[in-house]
TrEMBL record, chains A, B:
Family annotation (InterPro entries): Arg_biosynth_ArgJ, ArgJ-like_dom_sf, ArgJ_beta_C
Family: Belongs to the ArgJ family.
Site (Cleavage): A189, T190
Protein name in UniProt: Arginine biosynthesis bifunctional protein ArgJ
Catalytic machinery residues: T190 (nucleophile)
N-terminal signal peptide: none
PANTHER family: ARGININE BIOSYNTHESIS BIFUNCTIONAL PROTEIN ARGJ (PTHR23100), ARGININE BIOSYNTHESIS BIFUNCTIONAL PROTEIN ARGJ, MITOCHONDRIAL (PTHR23100:SF0)
UniProt KW keywords: Acyltransferase, Amino-acid biosynthesis, Arginine biosynthesis, Autocatalytic cleavage, Cytoplasm, Multifunctional enzyme, Transferase
Function, in words: Catalyzes two activities which are involved in the cyclic version of arginine biosynthesis: the synthesis of N-acetylglutamate from glutamate and acetyl-CoA as the acetyl donor, and of ornithine by transacetylation between N(2)-acetylornithine and glutamate.
Subcellular location: Cytoplasm
Documented EC number(s): 2.3.1.35, 2.3.1.1
């Protein structure tokens, strides 16, 4: 049984509808800024939140509403992060849930909320209130694209995916949408992802699978090293696929986990590729690390290095910067064992062996690095663990997007 | 008794001469690339090295030669870091010391060595060998500027300072030079600093004073978060000032320590201000932190944030990014206690109180942030420790300098 991508998104699993509209938080009327996803049936739900000490008001409310591990709807706005907004902000995040609950006759605790955009500015809650009838009225089985658009900020393309798998003879579907690092007025980059599925699974295992997937996908990307106050990944599972309930870590669980990892890694790569101002996706695979933890720290150090990112922007095979970034990762290792290889769709080239320079053709290296997806292969020869992380290059446009004065 | 800045540098203390010449490692003949500092009398010596696991060959040789805590000369080249160069590189670093020792009739172990520039490329050691007579021949009591120039890479101005103080009725002088983040062909940024002094002090206390100074100066700056493989700070003390030997932590020691901190903080600020592509110095002071360690982590997180750095480049009072950077510093704190103030020579403005937005004039804030030296004041209200760190803005030119292809 295989995992198969299909066209779609959060409305692909049975029983989910969604919508996305412009309510006026963003000034540009052509930009959607309010999204709603609902399930006709109560869902088991799980979420992962930013590790930033400063958390947006929507995260606090969502955390509270997910105490019972169930939900039926998610409301999301872009254009304002509702963060650093004190008690008023907290009240507004709760109101967003209430509006939806009142309109659909749900319990307020069954609605969760997320926001992305400028921080330190109060939300114009009336605009959201007034738009609820339109938002609910436009809920549709084909709404996945509209809701994906409504959570975008500086994203340059929609991030929506869906896939199918078969469990105990039943078709199970997973849909997901995400937004990457962007900002409205020059402001906070935020990573949001919402996953829906009709799988029948216990809350405990849903939570476990989500955490395992996030750890090797969204937690292995970096755009600029800044962890947002509003990052959130949620999953809702309504059970309508009617597969045998997964309540132990059996084969069905493992297949679901594989599917969830597949879709979250794909979305994470899309986010990295669409990093602010980015022109290239950087994929750094650390081979033969002593442990998975060490491999991850080493790989993250490489994809987060401003000097490495700038070199890749310039298609410069400046491998010394990679060795340097490995060196300050905090991991103890022998530099005289490390091999480095650059690769892309046009080929690959080894540039460093046992920590020493190889005589390589800079012309070939440049041709490889001129491509849009760059692989950096680091062989540590210290163990047997392989870890991949993703990032993007550092460009003039990153500075432009984040350095322009807000007016 | 006061500490007084004087014009000068590494040749200001008694008994020190230095030189700086072009030997051919840099292609541009107008750029000096080889420096020598010597003391007529054996010096107590101490050094602090990069924490990067990958260390340049010169660092390994210097560490070896300083085992006995004495030295008489330092040879430094720019244009090539002699790092990731294997056994050949190690042999070349030793040869640089030998050349100087043979020419001056010193012990090889009394010569230490530093390099900065491109990594992963073997040094053209013959060019250095052939230039030793000229290098030694041009040693001068006024050589401080020539040697300062010879260690520069993309630095845009010379970093040389000297100051005097009086200890037990004797005039004691400290001289120093430094280079900041730069590269030759797009390559490794390195921080180097060489300090000379005629103070009479025990090796143990010299080492202790150096470490204490480095911890609150060079270790509190960041240009791009990339820790070089070749960072090194050394101090040579020849005792010619004939002050009473400092071999305990008495008042003389404390005064010397204060002077050393003064000169290293000034140089560190010069390095931060002259960061690659930088247009502004950012000074972040964390007030009322629970501990000095926490204050340092919080302050470093702010000055290292790409989003904060880009906002300052754009003179944008985007304080949410500062709160966000504090939030991911790893420190546990209450965001609802934090006050934030921006300041510069034209005034200051409080933008956030108790984690919530203040109604401030964006026009006044912009005027403050248009200045070249920006203060960010963070009041944590969690204790009584104050820590300041320094960084620079993130600009188009940083990307340009580090992203251009090497040819």
């Amino acid at each position: 049984m295989t995992i198969k991508y299909i066209q779609g998104g959060v409305t692909s699993p049975k029983g989910f509808t969604s919508s996305g509209i412009h309510c006026g938080i963003k000034k540009n009327k052509n930009k959607k800024d309010l999204a709603l996803i609902i399930s006709e049936k109560e869902c088991n739900a799980a979420a992962v939140y930013t590790k930033n000490q400063v958390k947006g008001a929507p995260l606090l409310v969502t955390k509270d509403h997910l105490k019972n591990n169930t939900a039926k709807a998610i409301i999301i706005n872009s254009g304002n992060a509702n963060t650093c907004t004190g008690d008023t902000g907290l009240a507004n995040a709760r109101k967003m849930c209430e509006f939806v609950a009142n309109s659909l006759n749900y319990n307020t605790e069954d609605v969760i909320v997320a926001s992305t955009g400028v921080i330190g500015v109060q939300l114009d809650i009336d605009k959201i209130k007034d738009s609820i009838p339109t938002l609910v009225g436009s809920l549709s089985e084909n709404g996945y694209l509209a809701s994906t658009e409504a959570i975008m900020t500086t994203d340059t393309f929609e991030k929506t995916l869906a896939l199918e798998l078969e469990l105990s003879g039943k078709k199970v579907t997973i849909g997901a949408m995400a937004k990457g690092s962007g900002m409205i007025h020059p402001n906070m980059a935020t990573m949001l992802s919402f996953i829906t599925t009709d799988i029948n699974i216990s809350p405990t295992l849903l939570d476990k699978a989500l955490k395992a997937s996030v750890n090797i996908s969204y937690n292995r990307i970096s755009v600029d090293g800044d962890t947002s106050t509003n990052d959130m990944v949620t999953i809702l599972a309504n059970g309508l696929a009617e597969n045998n309930l997964i309540d132990e870590e059996n084969e069905d669980y493992l297949l679901f986990l594989e599917a969830l990892k597949t879709i979250t890694i794909s979305l994470a790569k899309m986010i990295a590729k669409d990093g602010e101002g980015a022109t290239k996706l950087i994929e750094c695979t650390v081979l033969n690390a002593k442990s998975e933890e060490e491999g991850e720290l080493l790989s993250k150090s490489v994809i987060s290095s401003s000097l490495v990112k700038a070199a890749i922007f310039g298609s410069d095979a400046n491998w010394g910067r990679i060795l340097c970034a490995l060196g300050y990762s905090g991991i103890d290792f022998d530099p005289l064992k490390v091999d480095l290889t650059f690769g892309s769709s046009v080929g690959d080239i080894k540039v460093c062996e046992n920590g020493s320079p190889l005589n390589f053709s800079e012309e070939i290296a440049k041709n490889i690095l001129l491509e849009k997806e760059i692989q950096i292969l680091v062989d540590m020869k210290a163990g047997s663990n392989t870890v991949t992380c993703w990032g993007c290059d550092l460009t003039y446009d990153y500075v432009k997007i984040n350095g322009d004065y807000r007016s």
